[in-house]
Amino acid sequence: MFTKFGKSIMMTSSVLALSGVAFAQDQDSTLKTNRVVPFNGVKDYRTWSVGAWGGGSAAFGPFGGPYYFNNFDFKNVGFVYGAYVKKQIFHNFGLQADFMRGQVKGATKASQTLTDIHGAPLAGGIKSFSTDIDWSASLSGVFSLGSINWINKQSFVIPYVSVGAGAMAFKPTVTAADGTETAVKTSGGKSTHTEMFIPVGVGAKFVVAPGVNIDLAYNTNFVNSKVFDGVNSGNKDKFSTAKLGLEFALGKKRKPQLAVVNPAAQLAEDLWSKNAALKTSLAESDARNQAAIGQLKDEVDGMKRDTDGDGVPDYLDKCPNTPAGTKVDGAGCPLPAPVQVVKEKVIITEADKKVVKDAIDNLEFDLGKATIRPNSFASLDKVASLLVEKNFSLKLAGHTDNTGSAATNMRLSKERAESIKSYLVSKGANPSRIEATGYGSTQPIATNKTAAGRQQNRRVEFTLY
C-alpha cells in the first residue's frame, strides 16, 4: 500500500511542476488590473499575502524508509491546519512564515513484527501511534515555476516548490496491541518534545480572482527526532501533509499580485501601449505637417503671383500694373530710357608732345628737394595751357637715383610729382585729371654707377592721355 502511496505522491509532484504549461489559461477578464510599467521596482505590486489551510497527514513520505507504521489507511490520516504570511521578493521567489497544528497518526500491518518503543521485537508490542502537534513555526523560501508565461498573458495555475526550516512541539502517544496507551516522554521526563524540522514541498496556486488564490500543496517534513512516532526505529522520522487553502493578497486592489502576475505580459503590454501612443503621436505629427505644407504652398503661390507680368512678384512690386513689355528694375518700376554715352576721342599732336618734352627737358629742382626752380616755369605754363585748352589728362611719375635710402628716395619722388601737379593746378589745370605718383629708385632708365646715369634717373615723366 505504501508503494502505491509513494508513487502517487511522486506523480502528483510531477504533475504540479508541469501544471503551469498544462493548465495555463488566459484569465484577462477575471484578472483585470492596472498595467504596471516594467523595470520600475515592486512598488506597483501587492507583495504581502496571508493564507489559511487545512489538510491531512500521514506517518511516512516519498523519501527514505523503511517505516514502522506503514499501513496506509484513511482511518490513519490525521488532520492538520495552519496559516501563513508571505512576502514576495521577486516574481519567482518569496519568503513564507508558516504556523501549523494538528495530529499525525499511523498503524502497523497485520503481518508486521511488533516492537517496543525502543525498536526491540516484542510480542504484543506497539500497534499504532498518535502524535499531537501543539505548534510548529517555520520560514521557507518559495520558488514559483510558472509565473513567466510566453504563451498566455496570465497563467491560471502557478506551480511552486518550497524548502525551509523551523521548530515544532509535539506529544507522541503509542498504543500496544492490547489497547494500552503510553505517552512517550523526553529523556528529561517531559511529555512535550521540541525539535527542529525541515519542510520540503511542492504545490500550485490556482488564481480565481485578483488577489485571491486557491493553494494546493504537499509537504514532507523531516523531523530532527527518532521518536516523533513514539518508536525509536533507528532513523529520524518524517511525515507528510497534503494541504488545501486560500491565499489573499494584501494592499490596494488596483495593484496586481507580484507572485502570480506574468512579467512577460506586463512587458508586452507596456510595449503595445508605447507603440499605440507612438502611432497616435506620429499620426498627429503627420497631420500637423500636412497642414503646414498646405499653408506653405499657399504662401509660396501667393509670393509667386505676378499680376502685371513684369517678372517681379506682386509682394515686391513697387509699381504695380506696368504696361506689358515695359522693362523694369528689381522693384518693378520702369527703367529710365538709356542715355547713349559718346566717348570723346583724345588726339595728341606732335606739337602737344613737343610741349611736354620741352617741359621735361627744362625741369629742374633744388638739390635733394621738391622745390621747382624758376627757369622751369615757362615750360610748365605751356603744359598747363595745353591741359586747360584740350582737356587732356596727365600722369606724373617721379623717379630718383639710388643715392640715399629707399624710403627717402620714394618720398622725394612722390613729393616732386606732387609739386608739379600743384603748380599746374595753380595755373588753371583740373586737379582731377592729374595723377601724381612716386616710384623712388625702383625704375631706373640708366646705370646708377656713373654721374651721367644717375642724372638720367633723376626725372619726372609726363604722360598725356
TrEMBL record:
InterPro entries named in the record: Bact_OuterMem_StrucFunc, OMP/PagP_B-barrel, OMP_bac, OmpA-like, OmpA-like_sf, Thrombospondin_3-like_rpt, TSP_type-3_rpt
Keywords: Cell outer membrane, Ion transport, Membrane, Porin, Signal, Transmembrane, Transmembrane beta strand, Transport
Subcellular location: Cell outer membrane
GO cellular component terms listed in the entry, alphabetical order: cell outer membrane; pore complex
Record GO biological process: cell adhesion; monoatomic ion transport
Signal peptide stretch: 1-24
Family matches, as Gene3D superfamilies: 2.40.160.20, OmpA-like domain
Membrane topology: Multi-pass membrane protein
MF GO annotations: calcium ion binding; porin activity
Annotated ranges, domain OmpA-like: 352-465
Protein's name in the database: OmpA family protein
Species in which this protein is naturally found: Chitinophaga fulva
